[in-house]
Amino acid sequence: MEQQLTDKIYTQFTPHFLQINNESHMHSSGKGANSHFRIVLVTDDFLGVSKVARHQQIYQLFASELQNGIHALALHLYTLAEWEKLNQQAPLSPNCMGIGQ
């Protein structure tokens, strides 16, 4: 599934940096599931695009996957300048409530 998501992103955007992590093991879906993904995408295609519009673009791109198995996407979407201001670090995802406690 990670490769499918990667391929779709590269058809739509020109990433400076892309990281896709399957985080299903952090949720009740468990290890080996393809239900929760964290995406860090750095592209200047987001220049002048609001954070809400960036998320909308990704959700539109993955509409089929969201209807067929993906339950959630943790999206961290930046321009190159924004990414550099963050020292090239996106926040980590927390465990789902009840998992790891």
Q: How does this structure look, described?
A:
With about 100 residues, the protein is α+β, with helices and mostly antiparallel strands. The chain has 4 helices and 3 strands, in the order H-E-E-H-H-E-H. Strands 1-2-3 form a 3-stranded mixed sheet.
List the helices and strands and how they pair.
Elements: H1 2-12, E1 17-22, E2 36-42, H2 51-61, H3 63-67, E3 72-78, H4 80-85
Features:
alpha+beta, 3-stranded mixed beta sheet, 3 strands, 33% helix, 20% strand
Please tally the β strands and state the result: 3
Number of helices: 4
Largest sheet: 3 strands, mixed
Which structural class matches the secondary elements? alpha+beta
- Mean pLDDT, nearest integer? 86
Unreliable stretches (pLDDT < 50, length at least 5) are none
Helix content: 25-40%
Beta-strand fraction estimate: 15-25%
Globally, the shape reads globular
Give the C-alpha Rg: 14 Å
Distance between the termini: 28 Å
Strand order of the largest sheet: 1-2-3
InterPro entries: BolA (IPR002634), BolA-like_sf (IPR036065), BolA/IbaG_stress_morph_reg (IPR050961)
Organism: Volucribacter amazonae
Family: Belongs to the BolA/IbaG family.
Protein name: Transcriptional regulator
